[in-house]
Amino acid sequence: MLKQAQRPWYQPASILLLQVKEPLDHPLSHLEIRAISEVGYAAGARVVHVYNSEDHLLNPQPKDSTVFTLVQASAKLFLVLGFSLFLFSIWMDQ
Question: Which long-range contacts (CB under 8 A, 24 or more apart) does 54-63 make?
Answer without folding.
Answer: 55/19, 58/28, 58/33, 59/33, 59/34
